[in-house]
Amino acid sequence: TAQTAMVAQFADDRVLRTVAGLSSFSGPIGVVALPPGRCPEDPTPMRRLLVLSGVTDPGNVGTLLRTALGLGWDAAFLLAGHESPERKQQSLHSWPNCADPFGEKALRAAAGASFLLPIIRGYPPTLRHVLKRHDMTLRVADLVSGRAKIAPPYH
User: Fold this and answer.
1) Which of 2, 43, 59, 114 is positioned for an S-S bond with 110, CB 3.0–4.6 A?
2) What is the Cβ-side half-sphere exposure of residue 149, based on CA atoms within 13 angstroms?
3) Nearest by Cα to 61 from 22, 117, 127
4) How far apart are CA 93 and CA 20, in angstroms?
């Protein structure tokens, strides 16, 4: 395994509060690389996949990721909306349809789950591919209608 050198930097409380985005905190602050996410082509079997679409509150995104990890789910899929010529110019990392799971509020709510639960980002065709590849049935909880339903299978 490769080893990474770590360098300690010391700063006063004012700087630490600014970097942490909090008025008070305890403990050290770290800077880490974002996890690469799970590739949709990964052959590792999946049984349960959390799919988020249009969840714009970062606290809700973090809480859902933490809950999925706690329940032993395999990964999360953050839907990027519908692909269009304009969207091709945007990076999938801009999180156009959901709050950023690595934003400060989502990270606090996730309590580490953002780094432990593999996250897939993609458009609806990629989601259909993942569901079909792993023989999963999509179940939908629709906030607008207030109903839960089983979506028709993708063929």
Assistant:
1) 114
2) 9
3) 117
4) 22
- Note the pLDDT tens digit of each residue in 2-57: 566 667 778 887 887 777 777 776 767 777 777 777 777 787 889 999 999 888 89
Q: Rounded CA gap, 50 and 67, in Å?
A: 10
CA 38/CA 118 separation, integer angstroms: 5
Q: Token pair for residue 41?
A: 């082509």
Task: For the full predicted model, state whether its pTM sits above 0.90.
Answer: no
Distance CA 8, CA 31 (A): 11
Torsion angle, CA of 80/81/86/88, rounded to 10 degrees? Answer: 40
Tokens 């942490």 found at: 20
Nearest to 35 by CA among 99, 120, 131: 120
How many Å apart are CA 122 and CA 37, to the nearest integer? 11
Return d(Cα 125, Cα 122) in angstroms, integer.
8
Alpha-carbon span 13 to 15, nearest angstrom: 5
Which two tokens mark 76?
């999360």
